[in-house]
Amino acid sequence: MKTILCIGAGYVGGPTMAVIAKHCPEHRIVVADVNEERIQAWKSGPLPIYEPGLDAVIQETRDRNLFFTTDICGNIEAADIIFVSVNTPTKTFGHGAGRAADLQYWEKTARLIRDNSSSDKIVVEKSTLPVKTAEAMHCILESRNDDCHFEVVSNPEFLAEGTAIHDLEEPDRVLIGGGDTERGRAAVRELVALYEHWVPSERIVTTNVWSSELSKLASNAFLAQRVSSINSLSAVCEATDADVDEVARALGMDHRIGSKFLNAGIGFGGSCFKKDILNLVYLCEYYGLQEVARYWEGVIQMNEYQKQRFVGRMMRTMFNTLADKTIAVFGFAFKAQTSDTRDSPAITVCRELLEEKARVVVTDPQALDNAKSALSEVDPENITFEQDPYAAAEGAHAIAVLTPWPEFQELDYEKIYRAMQKPAFIFDGRNVLDQNQLYRIGFNVYPVGKQPLSHV
Ligand code: UDX
Ligand code: UDX
Question: Which protein residues are within 6 Å of ligand 2, measured from CB?
Answer without folding.
Answer: 157-161, 220, 223, 227, 261-263, 265, 268-270, 272-273, 334-335
